[in-house]
Amino acid sequence: MTLAPRIRVIIADDHPLVIEGLKAVLKKTAPDIVVCGEAGDGLGALALARRCPADIYVLDISMPGLNGLEAMARLLIKDAKARVIMLSMHDDKPTIEKALRAGAKGYLVKESAAEEIARALRTVHRGQRYLSPSVSAMLEAAWPGRPRKGAKDRDWSRLTGKETEIVRLIALGLGNKQIASRLSISGSTVSVHRRNISRKLDIHKQTDLVRYAIREGLSRP
Q1: 178-195 pLDDT, tens digit each
Q2: For residues 203 and 195, what is the distance between their CA atoms, to the nearest angstrom?
Q3: Is the confidence at residue 214, as pLDDT, over 80?
């Protein structure tokens, strides 16, 4: 019988006890996951990634020298397919949205990280996004006019490929002129696409569209 390949993980946090706690949980409950490196700051994580790239990087947002968001940005420059889970004590909406908009594939709140770490790593390794339940609930609550339970949700699959790409670029903070340049189309064409997006999704404010893109996993670098 062929064994499934192990998921290789690098963890970076400036609190050694956090790393040791996560390693202990994984060693006890997740034989398919191996911690192949650990670091106390973002620079250390990058050095490890250069020597031995991991499948997934678990990075604390608040670290001295180079924080998790900055480290993730550098990782994604080197490898656009790098998968990062942010680890944080912060569960405020601006921090969460900033991390997801920057390219994080997961967001774990430290107080529940030990319980969720294995599930989060396996989920992200499958190519899906993982959010701590409290984070997911916060984003849902922040979504204005979300459908009632049982109602049909806004379905981004109704968008064309070009419209989906424009939503992604809007979520990354690009304006119409920048989008037009990036996609080699005219500004008026971008405007037409945006009107179609608003109609199809019934979303008419840019801030709401950005939240939607983050929630649906459409925002990535």
Answers
A1: 999 988 899 999 999 999
A2: 10
A3: no
Q: How confident is the model at residue 158 (pLDDT cuts 50, 70, 90)?
A: confident
Q: At what angle do helices 187-201 and 161-171 cross, to 10 degrees?
A: 90
With CA atoms as reference, report the closest residue to 86 among 5, 32, 70, 78: 70
Alpha helices per DSSP H over the chain:
16-29, 42-51, 68-78, 93-102, 110-125, 133-142, 161-171, 176-183, 187-201, 206-215
* Two tokens, residue 157: 């699959």
**Nearest alpha-carbon partner for 115 in 55, 26, 35:** 26
User: pLDDT digit string (tens) for 6-35?
Assistant: 899 999 999 999 999 999 999 999 999 999
Q: Selecting from 3.40.50.20, 3.60.60.10, 1.10.510.10, 3.40.50.2300, what CATH number does the domain 7-133 have?
A: 3.40.50.2300
Place of tokens 């949700």: 153
Q: Give the CATH fold of the 156-215 domain.
A: Arc Repressor Mutant, subunit A (1.10.10)
- What span, in angstroms and rounded, lies between the C-alpha atoms of 105 and 128? 7
Residue 24: half-sphere exposure toward Cβ, Cα within 13 Å: 7
- 149 pLDDT band, cuts 50/70/90, is very low
